[in-house]
Design goal:
mainly alpha, monoatomic cation transmembrane transporter activity, about 70% helix, elongated, 3-stranded mixed sheet, Alpha-Beta Plaits
Amino acid sequence: MTHPRTTAQRAEKGLRSTLLGIVANLCMVAIKALAGYFGNSYALIADAIESASDVFTSFIVWVGLRAASKEPDQDHPYGHGKAEPLAAIMVALSLIGAAIFIAIQSVDHILTPHTSPAPFTLIILVIIILVKEGMYRYTNRVGSEIESAAVKADAWHHRSDAITSLTAAIGIAIALIGGPGYESADDWAALIASVIIVINAYRIFMPAFTEIMDAAPPSDFANEVRNIAATVPQVQGLDKCLVRKMGFEYFVDLHIIVDGNLSVREGHDIAHAVKAEVMRQKPSVYDVLIHVEPTYL
């Protein structure tokens, strides 16, 4: 018993949010790059670079989600779920690369004398911050609903974009208010933004990495599985309950204790009843492997 429709529906939600993010980021790249170039603001150009990396990484997330939603086949009997956290890891690494590039360019601009940015760049940044924060909240909500590390990573890309835009806005405001001598304030803002991006990359990387390493999900999940299994008639107790996440789904290894005087068929039927009940109450569970332990009263 599996839940292909559940998987497909969750993947479809993630794909929609990712495509929306790609379209939004393409618009952001054009607006920021043009405003930064004509408004003489490297912080805004750095922001455009970060948005350009968002387009690339959102595409990676889209590909990862498509791959993760595929049904198991002969070569991948456990499905293609690992593609989803792999996509999240690639997003995190690309964020680090973008941060390094921005930091290098920021230092170069700090050391090179230049004029202050144009006032209109500040207005554009305020609008961008509001849009990107809205995109973060929407995408993060979808990622939480479908339990997708890749979609959550894509959401944090939007949040990091909002943060870089905020730091750029602060830097430009300081440069405009301070006047002569404060021309490099927005470059310092871009440098600070690169550090924030690296921190966000770490926050994306670690959950995806632990999933790749088959780390156990929060203990609440295993406890819920145990409680469900314990309600099945003739289950006298529970031993091991091991859970691992693969993409959108969970795989459970469960040891149940039954009366040792039962026949093999009766024990087999109880195991199937436990599996069916767990998968009924928790649709995100893709499969349950049951081991029957006998006890004698």
